[in-house]
Design brief:
The complex is a heterodimer. Chain A is mainly beta. Chain A contains one helix and 28 strands. Chain A has one helix at residues 2-18, and strands spanning 22-29, 34-39, 45-50, 55-59, 65-68, 81-83, 87-91, 96-101, 106-111, 116-121, 127-132, 135-141, 146-150, 158-163, 170-174, 178-182, 188-193, 199-204, 210-215, 219-224, 230-236, 241-246, 253-258, 265-271, 279-280, 288-293, 298-305, 308-314. In chain A, the strands form seven sheets. Chain A has a four-stranded antiparallel β-sheet with strand order 1-28-27-26, with no helix packed on it. A four-stranded antiparallel β-sheet of chain A has the order 2-3-4-5, with no helix packed on it. In chain A, strands 6-7-8-9 form a four-stranded antiparallel β-sheet, with no helix packed on it. In chain A, a hairpin with a 3-residue loop joins β6 (81-83) and β7. By secondary structure, chain B is of the alpha/beta class. Chain B has two domains: 5-39, no CATH class; 72-204, Protocatechuate 3,4-Dioxygenase, subunit A (Sandwich), CATH 2.60.130.10. In chain B, strands 1, 4, 8, 9 and 10 form a five-stranded mixed β-sheet that branches. The radius of gyration of chain B is 21 Å and the shape is elongated. The two termini of chain B are 38 Å apart. Classes of the chains: A mainly beta, B alpha/beta. Chain A binds chain B through residues 93, 133-134, 154-157, 159, 175-177, 196-198, 200, 216-218, 240, 260-263, and chain B through 46-56, 101-103, 105, 132-134, 143, 145, 151, 153, 174.
Chain lengths: 315, 207
């Protein structure tokens, strides 16, 4: 107990030394061990993947929990869950994406024939960005459940991808070490260099004027979203970064880093391109489920215990 | 009445459905057609690229440095297209873990770029890669590029991998998408050391 208190005091001290504070904003009842979680844009909900392929959705700040039955066979990859204000989408390793409404009723079932690796909705929930294990990024129309277009790569697949709040720009982290940008109709805009190793995720700033990209190299890069031009590069975090979230204001970014060997959560990298170097936040990464943002700031989702999930604000 | 493929081709020629090139007799055309069909190969199944591809790997066929621990491995094969033609000058990028299951992310250990030779042949020296927790099966990544062909992204697996319990056909798991990618491993017991070898043919689709 005393040790925990000392550890907590040290973490707070480290946090203030680094200039960031991590404060809890919600504590949620959990049904047991969870694998991955994400914050829906806007921050009204948190969605998590459980061990039996069940998906749980909490409303914030009330903490009301809903269990979503997807009826999917196969597994669900971390990242293959998306939520908008009105919809959920969940993809399976067997290549099926199911779209559910806010009440959990199935709206569409799409067959992609490849392991689904990443999903994200447009802000208005009308479009769904999809990546799969062996193909470039795709954009789907949610109302019809049909693919609108598919991007291209020199080889291999796209990993993470994002769509601008107005839906006019889609950026994808491609395994061929590029970041490619498209307009909403799928017109190719540019390919930016994504580093020596594969980039795993991109994140657009709220104004969609810049994006950050990170991946196996453990470095975060800031690019101009209109041209793809590299603006700034961070130091190395020491671990591959698999997921990024940019703050709703400014250009601060956090990256979810995994240990390259075990693929366990290793750190949360924090970088403010406008001041200060890249740092790992002083927290127990093993408890980390996901990262995201609401309208105010960056958020972390951690599992404190099998029965408790905490949502924390990074300021 | 059942028609052989040969009969069918002759009838098609007679009907004008198949046109012959100048100076080519019907018999020669049929033989060429059947030969091409016989030579045809199934494209190598694709497999996931990542997650640790790194561009700019050195041009070397020796991935194993002197004194490296692990079971020495020699891999050889030929690059073909689906018509069965050998592809020389194909660029083959290879990456794998060391014998303990660790990828080199900061450098280029166990990463190489090769060019297939005159008859499409390639070979390299390495070690059997280790297992690591995120992947169940031992594997080597391949990325093959050749003009006029779709890039081939695939992986080679090891029939000797304990995970297959001696029968990859029966005990294959989701980590290995096709039994065709599981290669038999030949173990050679030399007086001072044991070595493993395998062949892995790479068949590319035309664009």
């Amino acid at each position: 107990m005393k040790i925990n208190f000392v550890m907590a005091a040290l973490l707070v001290l480290c946090g203030s030394v680094y200039g960031q504070t991590v404060k809890p904003v919600a504590k949620l009842d959990a049904p047991g061990g969870l694998i991955f979680a994400m914050v829906c844009d806007g921050g009204e909900r948190v969605v998590a993947l459980g061990g039996q392929n069940d998906v749980y959705a909490w409303s914030l700040p009330s903490g009301d929990r809903r269990t979503l039955k997807t009826g999917l066979d196969g597994h669900v990859d971390p990242g293959a869950i998306a939520c908008s204000r009105k919809m959920f989408a969940v993809g399976s390793t067997h290549g099926t994406v199911v779209v559910l409404d806010a009440g959990g009723a199935e709206q569409h079932r799409m067959e992609l024939k490849e392991e689904v690796t990443f999903l994200t909705f447009s802000a208005d929930g009308t479009m769904l960005v999809v990546t799969t294990a062996n193909s470039p990024v795709q954009l789907w129309d949610v109302a019809s459940g049909k693919a609108l277009w598919k991007g291209s790569t020199d080889f291999g697949n796209s990993y993470g991808a994002r769509i601008a709040p107005n839906g006019d720009l889609i950026v994808a982290a491609d395994g061929d070490t590029h970041v490619r940008a498209y307009d909403r109709k799928g017109k190719f805009l540019y390919a930016a260099d994504g580093g020596l190793l594969e980039p795993f995720d991109v994140s657009l700033s709220a104004d969609a004027k810049t994006f950050t990209v990170a991946g196996a190299e453990g470095i975060i890069e800031l690019h101009d979203a209109a041209t793809g031009k590299l603006l700034k590069k961070s130091a190395n975090s020491g671990n591959p970064i698999f997921l990024l979230a940019m703050a709703p204001q400014g250009r601060k970014v956090i990256g979810f880093a995994l240990d390259a060997y075990r693929m366990y959560p290793a750190a949360v990298a924090y970088w403010d391109p406008d001041g200060g170097g890249l740092k790992n936040l002083p927290l127990d990464a093993k408890t980390l489920l996901g990262i995201g943002r609401d309208d105010k700031s960056l958020l972390l989702v951690r599992q404190e215990s099998p029965g408790k999930v905490v949502v924390e604000r990074v300021d | 009445m059942e028609l052989s493929r040969r009969d069918l081709l002759y009838k098609c020629m007679a009907l004008g459905v198949v046109k012959l090139g100048v100076g080519l007799s019907p018999a020669a055309a049929v033989e060429a057609w059947l030969h091409a069909e016989k030579m045809a190969r199934q494209a190598t199944p694709i497999d996931q690229l990542g997650p640790f591809y790194k561009k700019g790997a050195p041009n070397t066929a020796v991935l194993r440095a002197a004194g490296d621990p692990g079971l020495p491995l020699a891999v050889a094969g030929t690059v073909y297209n689906t018509r069965g033609e050998e592809l020389s000058g194909a660029k083959i990028e290879i990456w794998q873990t060391n014998h303990q299951g660790h990828y080199d992310l900061s450098g280029y250990r166990y990463r190489a770029t090769l060019l297939s030779g005159e008859k499409g042949a390639y070979d390299f020296q390495s070690v059997i890669p280790g297992h690591y927790p995120a992947r169940v099966c031992q594997h080597i990544h391949f990325l093959v590029n050749a003009p006029g062909h779709k890039p081939l992204v695939t992986q080679m697996y090891f029939g000797s991998d304990p995970v297959f319990k001696g029968d990859p056909g029966k005990n294959r798991n989701d980590d290995c998408p096709s039994v065709e990618l599981v290669r038999p491993i030949l173990l050679t017991d030399q007086p001072n050391s044991m070595n493993a070898s395998a062949t892995f043919e790479l068949v590319m689709e035309t664009r």
